[in-house]
Amino acid sequence: MDLKYPALLAVALLLAVVGVMLVHRRLTKRRGVSAAAVANSTALTALPAFQRALRGHRIRLAVLAASGCLLAGSALVGAARPLDTTVEQPQTRNRDIMLCLDISGSMASFDAELVSTFQDLVKSFQGERIGLVIFNSSAATVFPLTDDYVFINDELANAQKALSGDPEYDSFFAGTFNGRGTSLIGDGLATCVTSFDRVDTQRARSVVLATDNHLAGRPLVEVDEAGRLATSKGVRVYGLNPQEDGLDSEAAEMRTVVTATGGRYFAMGDEGAIGSIVSSVQAQEASLIDSAARALYTDSPTLPIAFAGLGLAGVIGAARRWSS
User: In this protein, which residues make up the domain named VWFA (predicted)?
Assistant: First the structure.
């Protein structure tokens, strides 16, 4: 058991020692004062009733003193905050998933629903790191890779409000209108691919790309070039297309690009899309990584409270017996 305020016990012990010394000194002075003699007291003190009363008095005095010490000591230990210490070594999965969302005008009616799809995806993961990038004429990182799922869910909830037209969240779109044209899919995908750690290359990496692949401008990186970049970096791309209209050329190009990376292509209306993406991502190497160990402290007042209650009961019992 550890104590949060161990110095409190040291100060209390010092005060107790000083108190004992003062009491001892005072009692010593009293013994030095001559007491008045009482004639024929021996006959009284030798009576069995007197001896029983004296023993009872001494026992009650001892119980009162012990109970008082127990009560005071327990109260001091409780004030010093006893703690239980446990050492935890969290484990995380060595998979990274970057959510990549096209927020151009042609996607406006689908983005809120796509964010709901992202939220459903996040619910299916545990321990993986997840990030979010949005793009239009330029790309912006909403949040980098993290395994803080409370934070992730909060950010996705804010994204859904922004994409549903809530003016309070207009700042969500900052940084996505700095290029020429709109819906520059290749630039957005390239940004997502390069958003992974550059040092740790052992982690499985996936991008979930949500776009209709309707290009409207001159990107710095074409979609097929971004796909080759993903392949060279070992990143699998999973495509979600909310506007697939049969075998249109944009959908065909998107399918070709994502499948070339080892990923899969889905129409958003495909009811099995979420489950298929999750199972495909989880099928990748998923060994556990030990994170840095951390100590967890929790208050443990049970014993001090129990002993304080026992001491209080002893004090009350001895005092009542004395008063009777």
Answer: 96-281
Q: How far apart (Å, rounded) are the C-alpha atoms in residues 214 and 182?
A: 9
Tell me the per-residue pLDDT of 122-133, one tens digit each, with 9 for 90 and over. Answer: 888 877 889 999
Q: Which string of DSSP letters, residue by residue, matches 35-102?
A: PPP-TTHHHHHTSHHHHHHHHHHHHHHHHHHHHHHHHHHHHHHHHT-EEEEEEE--EEESEEEEEEEE
Q: What does the DSSP 8-state code read for residue 126?
A: S
What does the domain layout of the chain look like in residue ranges?
1-16+49-88+298-324, 91-290
- In single-letter form, the type of residue at position 121 comes to L
CATH of 91-290, one of 3.40.1190.20, 3.40.50.410, 3.40.50.2000, 2.60.40.10: 3.40.50.410
Q: Which two tokens stand for residue 46?
A: 């030798």
Residue 315 CA to residue 224 CA, distance in Å, equals: 84
Overall average pLDDT of the 29-51 stretch: 68
Angle, alpha carbons 148-153-156 (nearest 5°): 125
* Share of residues in the chain with pLDDT > 90 (%): 17
**Considering the entire predicted model, what is its pTM?**
0.59
Instruction: Tell me the C-alpha distance between 160 and 151, whole Å.
Output: 14
DSSP bridge pairs for 270: none
pLDDT tens string 239-268: 888 876 656 788 888 999 999 999 888 887
